[in-house]
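Z., the sequence and structure:
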Amino acid sequence: MAGRRRKNPDNPSATGPGEHPAESLLPADFALEDLYGAFAAHGADDEDLDDAAVLVPPVRLPSEQELTAEALAVPMLGYALKLSRWTAPHRAVDEFGDLTEADREPAARLLGLAAAEGEVAEEEVVEAMRAWSLACDLDLVEIGTTAAGEHVAIPGPDLEPAEQGDPETVLELWLTAAGIVRELAAEADSLPAEGEEEDEAEEGSEEDEARLAEVEESRDAAAELLDEALQVLYETTAFAEPGTETVPLGVLAALLVVPEGEEPSEELLGDITDVMVALDPMLGDLAELGLLAYRPIDPELFDEEDGETPAPAGDEPLDEAESARFGLVRLTPLGVYAVRQWLLEDGYDAPLVGELAQGDAAELLTAVAESANVLPEEEIREWLDGREPLPAARELLAAARGTDTYAPLRRLLCRLALDQLGSPAEPAVREVLDDPELGGAARAWLAAAGAADVPAPERPMVLWTVVDTFAAHLLDSGGDAGTLRDLVTGLPVTDNPASYFGELWRVDHPNTADVLDAVGELHLDRQVAKEARKAAFKARSKN
């Protein structure tokens, strides 16, 4: 995304060592590695980021029941439900559908925001009114007018199933609320900062229209920034180990600002700070609804008057506690659920781990083989969970047979599954030693497992297995030249490539010519490549 410039010219970043007044220090005034640590420490190396930019990685989600319980535990949603029930059988409201003045303090007491006795603070009433507004937005209450002209509110149809914990109703209500907060957060970020003066302009004038256009443009930019941040957070923490999903806000900002393949420069530190400052209140709003666990930026870091902002620690990196003052963010399970739903609405392929592991072995291997956006080992692990090893191995081996386009990859995936099953699969593997399609791979698997009495394969089976294995990697690599070149150089070509390829082109396999073409294109030995191309021509002529 485009670099962002500082919005506070009175608080410039440092231009060199010792040139920054203590009261004006911002995150941009520190070395990036001191503030946030290396990207690799948070599971986001360059290669991972490149992959994430192309495909949204699969994620795990708790059950609907667990997500529902988390949603009902969100205070603001609980307040909305409680106020909605409070309207039964009906409750008077003003002409705007808001609680009447007489009901506002009782509403704050009902929600536990204020004590049962004594004065109710203004902020407690404001909080209760926010909950009422959410209840109205979610249609948990319905506003109408009686025959006598009184404005009243009554409980909406979703209230009862939501109170009973119906997963579909609760999650739909929570997701709608999250969408509302997401929009309002971006809108608030686009408004002039407190204390900024606005020139008065006559309504409908060119100046007024220009100002409205500027606000709308700012709102769109804020919404785009927030959406990008949520998606990057979703992608970069998809594979994080449990307990390591928290990302420093500076790392998140750097991932949004620093161009791919480049190291963060001193010039970009100001842009990173601007993004951090812009995201800080928006992420705080989303955290209130349980979408994020968020530790905001310590406001003292930006306190220009007190001069209490910590100075850089020389060449020493900031400790964990000091670094945390610049903000920490983590998607909750509800947050992962919400971002995935929004990605799906935007047309992204955003899979769940285990989605492909619901059918039999044939459905598993076929679905994984044909899907570009998948974690094969995880899908296989999900499928194997709870199954008896020996019957599972037999089912997998049967599903691996075939001569269709994806058959070689199914056999490769079958071997991954056998690796996960381990020694209990050995009897099933021995049953296919003489199978023309599975025998070579079966012998290789047994040998790798250290099994005894593994018969040596005959030459035709060896050659067929070479072609089949290479064909599987052709499918699995997506045409990546580097990966394929490593495979090509590992082929057991003898000192006489003409003799080796003279055998290989005769192999009765649907992918023989394609494999030889790849060898001819990628092998670094010119003589080997030439012989492979000649063999590919013969293989095609044979057919």
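The longest strand covers residues 141-145. The beta strands are 91-92, 141-145, 151-155, 247-248, 292-295, 328-331.

Let me know what you think.
H.
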